[in-house]
Amino acid sequence: MSSGTGLFVTFEGGEGAGKSTQIRKLAESLRSRGFDVLLTREPGGSPGAEAVRHVLLSGAAQPFGTRMEAILFAAARNDHVEGVIRPALNGGRVVLCDRFMDSSRVYQGITGNLEPEFIETLQRVAINGVMPDCTVILDLPATAGLERASRRGAAVAIAPDRFEREELETHEKRREAFLDIAAREPERCHVLDALRPEDVIAADVLTIVERRLPLKTKIAETVHE
Ligand SMILES: Nc1ncnc2c1ncn2[C@@H]1O[C@H](COP(=O)(O)OP(=O)(O)OP(=O)(O)O)[C@@H](O)[C@H]1O
Ligand SMILES: Cc1cn([C@H]2C[C@H](O)[C@@H](COP(=O)(O)O)O2)c(=O)[nH]c1=O
């Protein structure tokens, strides 16, 4: 459970699953209902973590090995948590984060072949008690997600990042690894079929998140009194 009186929701899944799309839609729906929403992402979300994002996604850290990359992701996460996420939750805000610790478990742990104990130790240090209240996992075949990501990249002339460029088999393993996490943590994780139309998925996401809202968060007006 997250710290403070806010609500912490993370979005996870493979490349091109629709995380950014769904986060934007959810933020819009919640804001229109008066909630004070912070939309953020990983790696990144704070000035220090955004600097590390560039190092990681460009592949500049790749020659130093997966362990080094995992530690950099954790360092960026800790900066983001302490500088941005924890203060927002303490202020009663709804925090929506595009990827978080489950991405490290999957990308660095499972497909990076790092020992689970090492990854879990890093996560404990990185999140320092700030656990997501709820995680939406957008699930689709890797081929479909990569196709979407490549169409999106072509439209804005952005090349695939260091992780997107990996083998199809690796992306399929990641899909299975996210589903395994969901099976192990059913209270926190909700798996949605991401092949459906955006608005159908968005309605499911809103239902999931609304169930958790009244208990913990404040509406925007009361936060800024
Ligand atoms: N349900 C959907 N059906 C069809 N296309 C979609 C759907 N959701 C998103 N898209 C499109 O797929 C592309 C990828 O979506 P988006 O950027 O939201 O994914 P993402 O999970 O954040 O990707 P990444 O992890 O690679 O950043 C975008 O062009 C988006 O418009
Ligand atoms: C948080 C996190 C991310 N990654 C990888 C997953 C993606 O390939 C990129 C982020 O790109 P996006 O377009 O912003 O989704 O980084 C990772 O390997 N480990 C992590 O902890």
What does this protein look like?
It holds the Pfam family Thymidylate_kin. This protein is an alpha/beta fold and 225 residues long. The protein has one domain: 3-Layer(aba) Sandwich (Rossmann fold), CATH 3.40.50.300. It has 10 helices and 5 strands; from the N terminus they run βαβααβααβααβααα. The chain has helices spanning 19-32, 47-58, 66-90, 101-110, 116-127, 142-156, 168-184, 198-210, 213-216, 220-223, and strands at residues 7-13, 37-41, 94-98, 134-139, 189-193. The chain has a 5-stranded parallel sheet, sandwiched between helices. It is globular. Residues 13, 15-21, 148-149, 151-152, 197-198, 201 line the site of adenosine-5'-triphosphate.
The CATH first-level class comes to: Alpha Beta
> Strand order of the main beta sheet, please?
2-3-1-4-5
Structural class: alpha/beta
Bound ligand species:
adenosine-5'-triphosphate, ligand LXEULUCI
Report, as a whole number of angstroms, the end-to-end distance. Answer: 26 Å
How would you name the CATH homologous superfamily?
Answer: P-loop containing nucleotide triphosphate hydrolases
How many individual β-strands?
5
> What quaternary form is this?
single chain
Counting structural domains, the number is 1
Strand content: 5-15%
Secondary-structure arrangement, i.e. CATH architecture: 3-Layer(aba) Sandwich
Helical run tally: 10
What is the string of SSEs from the N terminus onward?
Answer: EHEHHEHHEHHEHHH
**Portion of residues within helices:** 55-70%
